[in-house]
Amino acid sequence: QVQLVESGGGLVQAGGSLRLSCVASGRIFNINTMGWHRQAPGKQRELVATITSSGSTNYADSVKGRFTISRDNAKNTVYLQMSSLKPEDTAVYYCNADGRTVFLGSFDSWGQGTQVTVSS
Predict the structure, then answer these.
(1) Digit-coded pLDDT (tens) for 21-50
(2) What is the DSSP string of 55-118?
(3) What does the pLDDT read at residue 103?
(4) Residue 27: predicted pLDDT
(5) Per the CB 3.0–4.6 Å rule, which of 25, 59, 91, 103 could disulfide with 40?
(6) Hey, how many other C-beta atoms are within 10 angstroms of the C-beta on 63?
């Protein structure tokens, strides 16, 4: 009942920047935590960053100081500003959100993923 759609992925050279966006839609009452995860070929999906509804953030050590997560609660949108990108940041990036629907049931939804490729 809650859909997430990511955008903003692409190909960038090492040292460059990209901004990912993810919009949540559906019968949403509120969204608690929104976040980004990534999965590189042959590796497990890993947490990149999360942000709560009050703005508290959490980052993986590998992206601290380079990535910034933010959200617009009015638009049910979360962003990931990625700077100083490295080839090892290459992965499919997935958006995640959890919260409650208008029927007061809980949801924990994932987007379809967006590819980020960093060339050396």
Answers:
(1) 999 999 999 999 999 999 999 999 999 999
(2) --EEE-TTTTTTEEEEEEGGGTEEEEEE-S--GGG-EEEEEEEEEEETTS-EEEEE---EEEEE
(3) 87
(4) 93
(5) 91
(6) 22
Q: Are strands 57-59 and 67-72 parallel, antiparallel or unpaired?
A: unpaired
Per the structure block, which two tokens stand in for 39?
Answer: 């999965």
Q: What length is written for the chain?
A: 120
Percent of the chain past pLDDT 90, that is, above it, reads: 97
**Residues with Cβ within 8 Å of residue 93, at least 6 apart in sequence:** 6, 9, 20, 36, 37, 38, 48, 80, 113, 114, 115, 116
Helix (H, G, I), strand (E, B) or coil at 17: coil
CA 83 to chain centre: 14
Token readout for 29 is: 């009452």
Residue 1 has pLDDT above 90, yes or no: no
**Residue corresponding to tokens 């935590």:** 33
pLDDT digits (tens, 9 = 90+) for 60-74: 999 999 999 999 999
